[in-house]
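Postdoc handover notes: sequence design on the structure in folder B. Input tokens:
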């Protein structure tokens, strides 16, 4: 049975400004780098065998992955499908600006986000399906092995919803900016569930 470890990217300069993070991402803050360094050291002290390490290609993912790889002695493999939600034209806006410009959409984004597509971006369900497909592909490639993934906050929350069989409407309840790393035991039921979710 494969085991999946996940580590969340450190705080970025845009997150520190309460800006909606673009898919490409902004650099980590000094605090974000310290958080990643601490998480990597803790992970290294508790986990012995990680067979494969995957990250997306955004700036914070690359920075986080490079720091973790150095501590754990791993090679980072690229998996573009792990990237953060594509916010389209919302990227770079602060939440206050979004609330002022589109108050009705802002409220729905907080209360019933599944029905919202940021202009030029993707829905939460589309992002979750992309993440599920990528994880399924990784698990197929590493049967009965332990893998480590770097994820950004919303991607992490969407994966948690997928693994725990929760609707994407619960995404904000599963999002935690203070989260650093964790693990999940995966089985064939998850693979079947992710396949079903992509067809729904």
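Designed sequence:
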């Amino acid at each position: 049975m494969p085991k999946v470890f996940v580590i969340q990217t450190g705080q970025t300069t845009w997150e520190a400004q309460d800006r909606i993070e673009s898919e490409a991402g902004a650099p980590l803050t000094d605090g974000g780098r310290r958080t990643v360094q601490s998480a990597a050291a803790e992970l290294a002290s508790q986990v012995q065998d990680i067979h494969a390490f995957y990250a997306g290609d955004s700036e914070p993912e690359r920075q986080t992955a490079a720091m973790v790889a150095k501590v754990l002695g791993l090679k980072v493999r690229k998996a573009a499908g792990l990237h953060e939600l594509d916010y389209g034209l919302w990227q770079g806006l602060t939440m206050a600006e979004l609330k002022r410009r589109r108050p009705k959409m802002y409220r729905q984004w907080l209360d019933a986000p599944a029905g919202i597509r940021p202009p030029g971006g993707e829905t939460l369900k589309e992002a979750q399906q992309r993440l599920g497909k990528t994880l399924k592909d990784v698990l197929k490639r590493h049967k009965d092995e332990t893998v480590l993934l770097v994820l950004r906050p919303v991607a992490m929350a969407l994966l948690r919803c997928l693994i725990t069989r929760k609707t994407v409407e619960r995404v904000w309840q599963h999002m935690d900016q203070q989260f650093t790393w964790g693990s999940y035991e995966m089985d064939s039921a998850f693979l079947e569930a992710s396949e079903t979710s992509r067809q729904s």
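Context for whoever picks this up: The radius of gyration is 16 Å. Don't rerun without checking with the PI first.
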